[in-house]
UniProtKB/TrEMBL annotation:
<dbReference type="InterPro" id="IPR001764">
    <property type="entry name" value="Glyco_hydro_3_N"/>
</dbReference>
<feature type="region of interest" description="Disordered">
    <location>
        <begin position="1"/>
        <end position="22"/>
    </location>
</feature>
<dbReference type="InterPro" id="IPR036962">
    <property type="entry name" value="Glyco_hydro_3_N_sf"/>
</dbReference>
<dbReference type="GO" id="GO:0046556">
    <property type="term" value="F:alpha-L-arabinofuranosidase activity"/>
</dbReference>
<dbReference type="GO" id="GO:0009044">
    <property type="term" value="F:xylan 1,4-beta-xylosidase activity"/>
</dbReference>
<keyword id="KW-0732">Signal</keyword>
<dbReference type="InterPro" id="IPR002772">
    <property type="entry name" value="Glyco_hydro_3_C"/>
</dbReference>
<dbReference type="Pfam" id="PF07691">
    <property type="entry name" value="PA14"/>
</dbReference>
<dbReference type="InterPro" id="IPR026891">
    <property type="entry name" value="Fn3-like"/>
</dbReference>
<dbReference type="InterPro" id="IPR017853">
    <property type="entry name" value="GH"/>
</dbReference>
<keyword id="KW-0378">Hydrolase</keyword>
<dbReference type="GO" id="GO:0031222">
    <property type="term" value="P:arabinan catabolic process"/>
</dbReference>
<feature type="domain" description="PA14">
    <location>
        <begin position="479"/>
        <end position="640"/>
    </location>
</feature>
<dbReference type="InterPro" id="IPR044993">
    <property type="entry name" value="BXL"/>
</dbReference>
<dbReference type="Pfam" id="PF14310">
    <property type="entry name" value="Fn3-like"/>
</dbReference>
<feature type="compositionally biased region" description="Polar residues">
    <location>
        <begin position="1"/>
        <end position="12"/>
    </location>
</feature>
<dbReference type="InterPro" id="IPR037524">
    <property type="entry name" value="PA14/GLEYA"/>
</dbReference>
Length: 920
């Protein structure tokens, strides 16, 4: 299947304008409507002719429909789980869906690299293709759920609450992995590409609606996120926190936007009239709908104390221009109306926006010529989308160090593969993820590429002290083979003969809305794993069963773990009845502490009964540190070189996690170095004297100071998605030349950073950090080299407000084909002294990214790369938050990274005359 890149123009209305370019889609069999869906559709057909809804007709049709509703019916439609109105032919609609890096939480899907990894590609066309696959699979799942006119479950709708375009201002933020990094321009451009892929080419029939989030000035801390207030300066607001949203809505044409949990200057973002009615709808001309982050309106009463009750908070949000409540606070709108705190005209206005969106999606009625009607199961996880997932993983790889050409590895190299992320499913899929069909972790990826007989493996260390990790295949055995025997039953009682019996290397599965094995129902099954546990040495062990809990469901899955036929773990989130000596945890991890006096094998048996809506499980442990290090040493002794997979995990960095161990706090980090137990593993491996290649898998910057000094090569792989192991193996082998660039600054220490709670940009990101980073924003090496000619400018004397055209010739001066990311930075002329201002006066940016393009060149090949910098790209923001193009002398650096960082490139000077203020 081919996913063509979309090319269109968009208007400030938030929807595309121009010719109707219908997206090419494959012709596969569609899905039948449910009986209830047919009844609703019949009623709707009686109201209106079935025809494509033109963008300029959608609001009129929505207004006519809203006018027929009672007040109670209107109020019920303002929350994410909107009920049906049978008398008007309105089907129920669940607005909540997720698609951060592939469609999420609805079963099998193509799982791309986490957003921060996609950002490392610096490739807007790639983001558009990823968005296209994501929305195509969303449409397919919507059709499988019944399509237009029928009810559907959460995560099966067409309003996708992505992308996350908050600025990753501080590496300690746990949700930074969901963003496109620290730079407003890079974030905005990647967002535009992704949004165009999500929404498609046809403004009369959007494929899905994109919802950039979280407006505005939201990036932690996670603990306390529901009630914190940001006192952001006018300059930082305009120069850093809003540009990506402006690009996403004005240039990208996103049809929706999500407001954030936090307050701005004492007013919750979802009730900020100046932000929603003023900047969003007034300055930017946005005509789509605003949805709250989930329970953000509830937070206005109970965390921000903004209003005395939920009715008051509901009225404040509606009056400010907010439309859709993810949550239930808008159920109090009737009370607010009765008290005169808002009026029905405002309610109608919001409903017209919401129903106009549903008409544009074709969700209320199936058009005669529906380009998406035949999308179905065959359009999920296609060969083309799997190929794109691999390509995205490859393009996300960033080579940080390559001393003495340690990489690529020679084909006959014997490798010791060590580290907690070498075989970790969570480090592939990240958060807000779908379920991969055939995920490839690094260990099998390297075995496939280099040969299993050339790979020795040891886990070596946990992620961090107190954080259990999946028990590795080296510690599990059944019938003489690594892993455990898995018996899969087509009932929840472990009764009768298992439908499937297989060998599972490890017990680590994401089964969110999917069957665990062929011939087993996804909603009714049980599994028994049995075999032997092989401790690497004597000592104290923690065994844990991590169940992926559904957070909005009834009932959870019971689990039982036996060691030497003794029950050591039993329970679920609801049932705390356990046998004597059994430890039961809080519903996410169930743990037991055991002491093994020797390393002899122990019988082990794990059982799960799938009776609720839980989403998979992992069998984990914490093993004695010295025993794991000794095991890693034995693996290293068998090898010519060491590949160590270190970093973080969505188990320790993420959204509002219940994590409180050394270095981590509620999903955030309070230290940015590599956790000490992983550091000890690296040092032990390096002591062997063999080449050490470090592969960092994380969603954020990790201060690899020791590795930068002592490792032979370092590759950043992020959370690379379903094909991550294959991509990493190809890069290490030299089948692919890494060409990604860092979308964030890697600092050396938290001492380099301002306080995490401060949203002042001084001292943050490459634009304002005056120190020496470990790796700068935009950094990335290659197996080849590139050379730049001096940039050519359309003029050396530019009138303020006019565009500046830039061209540069780039040549591959090395011996391998490779990708170069050509970056354009604007900075004051180096001959001018940067003004020294007091901290409270706010320094202007040191430099600003104003253009980039990823290109591929063969050895000796050169290419002319052209940029046109518009007035906004050449502008500055003053202390009052006013943006303008200012007179002065400037310099443009065009190269493979920032100037002064060792990246190849050349500069050219020019001057601007006059003054040109720009609109918000």
């Amino acid at each position: 299947m081919v996913y063509p890149s979309s090319r269109r123009t968009t208007g400030p209305s938030g929807f595309a304008r121009g010719k109707n370019k219908r997206q090419r889609v494959p012709a596969f069999a569609g899905s039948a409507f449910s009986t209830a869906g047919r009844l609703v559709m019949t009623a709707l057909v009686a109201m209106a002719a079935i025809a494509p809804v033109h963008a300029d007709e959608a609001e009129d049709k929505a207004a006519a429909l809203v006018a027929k509703m009672t007040r109670e019916e209107k109020i019920a439609q303002t929350m994410n789980a909107a009920p049906a109105i049978p008398r008007l032919g309105v089907p129920a609609y669940e607005w909540w869906n997720e698609g951060l890096h592939g469609i999420a939480r609805s079963g099998h899907a193509t799982v791309f690299p986490q957003a921060i990894g996609l950002a490392a590609s610096w490739n807007t066309d790639l983001l558009e293709q990823v968005g296209t696959v994501t929305s195509t699979e969303a449409r397919a799942k919507f059709n499988l759920a019944g399509g237009p006119g029928s009810d559907h479950k959460r995560y099966h709708g067409l309003t996708v609450w992505s992308p996350n375009i908050n600025i990753f201002r501080d590496p300690r933020w746990g949700r930074g992995m969901e963003t496109y990094g620290e730079d407003p321009y890079l974030t905005g451009q990647l967002a535009v590409g992704f949004i165009r892929g999500l929404q498609g080419d046809d403004p009369q029939h959007l494929r899905t609606i994109a919802t950039p989030k979280h407006l505005a000035v939201h990036s932690g801390p996670e603990p306390g996120r529901h009630g914190f207030d940001v006192d952001v300066s006018p300059r930082d607001l305009e120069a850093t926190y809003l540009p990506a949203f402006r690009a996403a809505l004005v240039d990208g044409g996103a049809g929706a936007v999500m407001c954030a949990y936090n307050s701005l200057h004492g007013t919750p973002a979802c009730a900020a009239d100046w932000l929603l009615n003023g900047r969003l709808r007034g300055d930017w001309g946005f005509k789509g709908f605003v949805v709250s982050d989930c329970d953000a309106l509830y937070d206005m009463t109970y965390f921000h104390y903004f209003r005395a009750d939920e009715a008051g908070s509901a009225a404040a949000a509606l009056n400010a221009g907010h439309d859709l409540n993810c949550g239930n606070t808008y159920r109090k709108l009737g009370e607010a109306l009765d008290r005169g705190e808002t009026d029905e005209a405002r309610l109608d206005r919001s409903l017209v926006r919401l129903f106009a969106a549903r008409y544009r999606l074709g969700e209320l009625q199936r058009p005669k010529h529906d380009p998406y009607a035949r999308l179905g199961a065959n359009d999920i996880g296609t060969p083309a989308s799997r190929k794109l997932a691999l390509e995205a993983a490859l393009q996300s790889l960033v080579l940080l160090k390559n001393q003495d050409a340690a990489l690529p590895l020679k084909p006959d190299t014997r490798l010791a593969v060590i580290g907690p992320n070498a075989d970790a499913l969570a480090a592939l899929e990240a958060n807000y993820q779908g379920t991969s069909v055939d995920p490839v972790t690094p260990l099998p990826g390297l075995r496939q590429r280099f040969g299993s007989d050339r790979i020795s493996y040891a886990q070596g260390a946990p992620l961090s002290a107190g954080v259990p990790v999946t028990i590795p295949e080296t510690a599990l055995r059944s019938d003489g083979q690594p892993g455990l025997k898995g018996e899969y039953f087509d009932n929840p009682d472990l009764a009768g003969t298992p439908r499937v019996v297989r060998q599972d290397r490890v017990v680590s599965f994401n089964w969110d809305q999917v069957a665990p094995a062929a011939g087993v129902d996804k909603d009714r099954y049980s599994v028994r794993w049995s075999g032997e546990l092989l401790p690497p040495g004597p000592g104290d062990y923690t065994l844990a069963v991590r169940v992926a809990r559904c957070f909005d469901c009834s009932g959870h899955d019971p689990v039982r773990l036996y060691v030497d036929d003794q029950l050591v773990i039993a329970g679920n989130a609801e049932d705390r009845r356990v046998a004597a000596g059994v430890h039961n945890a809080d519903g996410r991890n169930v743990e037991a502490q055991l002491r093994f006096e020797d390393a002899r094998p122990r019988r082990i048996r794990l059982e799960i009964e799938h009776q609720g809506q839980d989403q998979g499980l992992r069998l984990e442990w914490l093993a004695p540190a010295e025993a794991q290090l000794a095991e890693a040493e034995r693996a290293v002794a068998q090898a010519d070189a060491v590949v160590a997979f270190v970093g973080l995990s969505p188990d320790v960095e993420g959204e509002e996690l219940k994590v409180d161990v050394l270095g981590f706090d509620g999903g955030d980090r309070n230290a940015i170095g590599l956790p000490p137990m992983q550091q000890a593993m690296l040092e032990r491996a390096k002591a062997s004297g063999k080449p050490l290649i470090v592969v960092l898998m994380s969603g954020s910057a990790v201060a690899l100071n020791w590795a930068q000094e002592h490792a032979d090569a370092i590759l950043a792989a992020w959370y690379p998605g379903q094909s991550g192991g294959t991509a990493i193996a190809q890069a290490l082998a030299g089948d692919f030349n890494p060409g990604g660039r860092l979308p964030v600054t890697f600092y050396r220490s938290t001492k380099d950073l301002p306080p995490y709670v401060s949203y002042d940009m001084q001292g943050r990101t490459y634009r304002y950090f005056s120190g020496t980073p470990l790796y700068p924003f935009g950094h990335g090496l290659s197996y080849t080299t590139f050379a730049y000619d001096t940039p050519r400018l359309s003029t050396q004397m530019l009138k303020a407000g006019e565009p500046l055209r830039v061209s540069v010739r780039v040549r591959n001066s090395g011996s391998r084909s490779g990708d170069e990311v050509v970056q354009v930075y604007l900075e004051p002329n180096a001959t001018e002294q940067r003004p020294q201002l007091a901290p409270h006066q706010q320094q202007p940016p040191i430099r600003t990214l104003v253009g980039f393009r990823r290109i591929t060149l063969k050895p000796g090949q050169s290419r002319e790369v052209r940029f046109e910098l518009d007035a906004r790209s050449l502008s500055n923001v003053d202390r009052a938050g006013q943006r303008a193009v200012e007179a002065g002398d400037y310099r443009l650096f065009v190269g493979g990274g920032q100037p002064g960082t060792g990246a190849p490139g050349e500069a050219a000077a020019f001057s601007i005359i006059g003054h040109a203020p720009l609109p918000k």
